[in-house]
């Protein structure tokens, strides 16, 4: 496990931070619910991040693919402090390609588990102690163009 890294939304000057504020969609994303992020990875992309949680200080997951290293990292944030980082050894994202990433949330006795379904039909589970039963905060940052919900 690597040391925790600073989350992109901690930088107040982040020029391409996108806030997703579809209240109906977010209100329906509770425990045992799911949430999709659709969009296009930018040409010449280096990285992007998708964060889900109660607020900027309490994130169930910060999912960050690094296209230059061909890995992804996951982290959580509780009461403003980052926890231990998980590193995934694959990165099924490619410059200029459209993708859909599916997030599913389950509650546990010790926090929550986020299952992330990737575009190559693989998935992984990320456990954390944040214990938020719903997501009110969703942020997409970096080399990724988010598409509005098409439902």
UniProtKB/TrEMBL annotation:
The keyword Secreted does not apply. Pfam families: Gal-bind_lectin. Gene3D superfamilies: 2.60.120.200. InterPro entries: ConA-like_dom_sf, Galectin_CRD. The keyword Transmembrane helix does not apply. PROSITE patterns: GALECTIN. Residues 21-151 form the Galectin domain. Keywords: Lectin. GO terms for molecular function: carbohydrate binding. This is Galectin. It comes from Eublepharis macularius.
């Amino acid at each position: 496990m690597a040391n925790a890294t600073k989350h992109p939304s901690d930088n107040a000057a982040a020029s391409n931070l996108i806030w997703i504020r579809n209240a109906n969609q977010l209100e329906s994303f509770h425990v045992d619910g799911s949430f999709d992020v659709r969009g296009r990875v930018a040409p010449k992309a280096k990285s992007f991040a998708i964060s889900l949680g109660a607020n900027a200080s309490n994130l169930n997951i910060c999912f960050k693919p690094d296209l230059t290293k061909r890995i992804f990292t996951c982290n959580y944030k509780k009461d403003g402090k980052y926890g231990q980082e998980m590193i995934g050894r694959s990165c099924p994202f490619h410059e200029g390609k459209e993708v859909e990433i599916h997030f599913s949330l389950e509650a546990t006795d010790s926090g929550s588990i986020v299952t992330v379904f990737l575009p190559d039909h693989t998935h992984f589970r990320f456990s954390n102690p944040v214990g938020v039963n719903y997501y009110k905060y969703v942020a997409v940052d970096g080399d990724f163009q988010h598409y509005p919900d098409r439902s």
